[in-house]
Fold:
Amino acid sequence: MKTTWIVILACLWSFSLSASPWESFAKPNRLTPEAIGSYANGCLLGAQALPLNGYGYQVLRSQNKRYYGHPNTIAYIERLSAKARKDLRTHLLIGDMSLPQGGRFSSGHTSHQTGLDIDIWFRLADTKLSANQLKLPKPKTLVDMSAYKISSTNWDNRHFRLVKMAAQDEEVARIFVHPVIKEKLCSLEGANRTWLRKVRPWWGHNYHMHVRLKCPQDDASCVDQKPPPKGDGCGAEVASWKPKPKHNVKTYRGSKDSTKVEEKEPVVIAKAKPKPKKILPLQCAQLIDQTR
Structure:
């Protein structure tokens, strides 16, 4: 019995070390809506909750309380979902957005802090998911990771139309997808390639796309990301993400019982410079101070 309690206390101690103070907020504040700071170092004033029962979408894992966003974000999701329902005959599955007052998650993301980031799963819900399926959803990857190619089993041409539809909205700054998905999108588009500039390759986005909106026009304390590089990002740029093949280690034949491996020169690893510590914007720090 004593051992059991030691284990429980250790788990609680571990959780307290990793928990984010932003997760203690149960609801949004009543301030005028504003995104504060940068996507990975900020907070959110006057957040709105995405209605859990909306037209053309369903909210995943609502128990995590990550379905809040800037009013612009809520409007964008509702706008995109309505188009997806009409044109693609499906429901979008909305993953992580932001916490009730923004800020850092204890796990899963470093961004999503200002209410302007949305994860939209590639799993298309032509039939609505049940309450249990929404609570513990199963993702559907579009990438055969071991072969570094699109999964022919899971890919649907509607995925191309969905990403294009999402990117063509003027409020979108970027959409992150796995490099293989970006390459696929590049191969399918014809002359109208402007929207592809917004679609950026990034690891880990094989089962969902991460949509990032621009800072709202009147939010003076919101920090936009630099615009993507010029061009559509296809060709050599997306090809540069492909993992380099591993070189076989040369061996030399000796006796039947022994094989000598070629000696290599020692590799000198340069020490990485420590990243500068992020300073939380004053308005965000004040929100945290109110809880202490």
The chain is about 25% helix and 20% strand.
